[in-house]
Amino acid sequence: MKFGKRLKQQIQETLPGWRNKFVSYKDLKKLVRLISAAPPMKNGSLEFGRAEAEFVYSLNSEIEKLNAFFMEQEEDFVIQHKELKQRIERVADIWGPHGSNPSEMIYTEEMGRIKRDIVDFHGEMVLLMNYSNVNYTGLAKILKKYDKRTGGLLRSLFIQKVLQQPFFTTDLVSKLVKECENTIDTVLPAAQEEEAEEKGEGRGGIRRERETIKVYGEGIFRNTVAALLTMQEIRRGSSTHSHFSLPPLGLSDSDLIQPFQLNSPIPIP
């Protein structure tokens, strides 16, 4: 599938709300077509320089758009992560076994809400990492197309700039994803199942709780799985694979998806 169609499909399947935040691949492709369709321009000539300057201006505008959206989401994620941690502490301090006003029923209900919010939060962060991957790939492909059709040598230099951009730097989001998973392990430890069974709740109670998580998290989880598979696909390489491509993940589909099941057996569609 050509990248333009894949990008459109990817947005429809995973991130329809971010439709206008992706690289305008179609518009950039049209600009490359117009430049390459013009009368032959010698590389280094005034005409060629003007055409390339227009193309670079469009690329820079796209990068500014990507950076602005990515940093806004990243900032929101930092705040959300802090708020989730505070909610967990507050619920434990008030309604937990050693809280100021212990209530097993309220404590379980509140923790259930937090768990569902964590599932969604985790999924949103994975979707932002996918956003970074897809947009980098789009820029790399359009630059390759430009050099091929115009005889220019823009790709190598411009990619070096792209690699330094905030939207490409996902270290903080990756850290938050891992911390989110650790939080889930804390909120819903494996030992909780044994404790529930000892109290006579059996697996039925655990199953009901997990089904509730499924209902609340299914939508974002479906989108997250689709995004994970897309990340693997574009990193795996294609006919255009080169040192400009994202490094391969080196994981099978099952290995890639399993860490994001978050200890909640939400079935993968």
Task: Looking at this protein, list some descriptive labels.
mainly alpha, 0% strand, 9 helices, disordered C terminus, 269 residues
List the helices and strands and how they pair.
Layout (H helix, E strand, L loop, with lengths): L2 H12 L10 H13 L8 H50 L8 H47 L4 H8 L8 H17 L3 H8 L3 H35 L16 H5 L12
Describe the 3D structure:
- With 269 residues, this protein is an all-alpha fold.
- The protein has nine helices and no strands.
- Helix 4 (104-150) packs antiparallel against helix 6 (171-187) and helix 7 packs antiparallel against helix 8 (202-236).
- Mean pLDDT is 74; it is low at 190-198, 200-217 and 247-269.
